[in-house]
Amino acid sequence: MKPVLVLGAGPVGQTAALLLARWGLPVLMLDAREKRDMVGSKAICQQRDVLDVWETVGAGAEIARRGVTWTTARTFHGDRELFSFAFTDRGRSPFPPFVNISQCETERILDEKIAGNPLIEVRWATAVSTITQDDEGVTVNGTIDGSYAVACPGARGDLIRDQLGVSFDGESFDDHFLICDIRTDLPGWQRERRFYFDPEWNPGRQVLIHPCPDDTFRIDWQVPPTFDIAKEDLDGRIRLVIGDRPYELLWQSVYRFHSRIADRMRVGRVLLAGDAAHLVSPFGARGLNSGVLDAENAAWKIAFVAHGWAPESLLASYHDERHAAAAENLAVTGATMRFLVPPTERDARRRREILAKAAVDPSARSQVDSGRLAEPFWYVDSPLTTPDPHRPFPGRPARGDVPVPAPGILVPDCPIGTSRLRAKARNGIMVLVGDDAEMPVLHNEKVESHRMSDPELREALGAEPGEIWLLRPDAHVAAVVRSAHEVEPALNRMLNKPEVKQ
Predict the structure, then answer these.
(1) What residues does the FAD-binding domain cover (predicted)?
(2) Which CATH number fits domain 4-41+53-58+102-168+259-333: 3.50.50.60, 3.40.50.2000, 3.40.1780.10, 3.30.70.270?
């Protein structure tokens, strides 16, 4: 069997490679760099459901253990706290809402898993110059053959997008952001994210502070387009935040943020993932977290097609689902950036009014946008999802909350027998049958049926008597039906099988 080519060895590529191998597919991972760059915090904030994906390849618990757990997000205006919120778990996940850990450490842990997997080969110093494909597979650089490809070279994926004829439209923001990793002692700050609007130590702009392992903190300052780090008094800037205490500067960088999306995320046998397909500002930690969910979506669909468990048409749904997810992330982060960097004086005045009102009026606090934190995309409008009129999607929930389980929603995790619901769901396709419902007969080797005999499982789902729940291989709910004969049509829809004309 030809290997699946993974183009790019960052965390999205690493995730794709490990998940494809988990499905029994050989993988060849290519990266243009001579070796891994182990410098700087980069993407630090890993969301609970992403840790859960990594746990399917044996890495989630280790990443959580080595990281710093935080459960509270605080937002300030000047030196006054406006509000804080914690995070909802409708089930009983083994993971915290968020873990902060440097991208370098995440990559190190994933590399350890890759090194121990005989199905994965990694080639460094292999830049992609050409991509061609036909009905039999994908060829890179004229000589490297694969069955399919997941392209995740990161933000600098211009050549690959050009080869595929993919555009990457969007905007770039004028303001820059200075990032410093420091090691110091900040009592009381080790377990919470802090966001400051207009603090006296960065007037007119914002500062974001995240705790990291080993007594380190990451500080992000919004700075003007004219900012020159070579002329900056970094020590003075840092001391305005932490005071007169010893610290060690570990890393510094300046970023300009972009908001861009590929017009196509699937071109034949090549699927685009991560920053190569979408760029968003980091407020809300939606970049890497979304990229990992791209990788999971791509991996199970490629595997089901490659093994003959689903038709080739299933791959078309990768663009449908993950492009919609990227568009949602751009909308959310774009609104945040417009609140952080008002494009007009009218917008700036409105922001000042909202921040002033939020200090005394709790009803105004929902309008304060310091970044809606990462969450899975809800595939309620996916062509793979069978709608349930009894469970209409109520729309985006409040910050920190999650939707009630329904078709298109990621199922809450909870114990099921000696395992966990999401772990069992991610082994294939799961059918959960109410005790008073008829057990369906299905002819697909990747389908497992279970009775919903555990009251804790029924409570987590909000399952009603007589219901049958169909779960996808990425643990999202594909359908909730009320008779056994409705399951097979929902399964065919979940696999994007063409309708059979009677």
Answers:
(1) 3-330
(2) 3.50.50.60
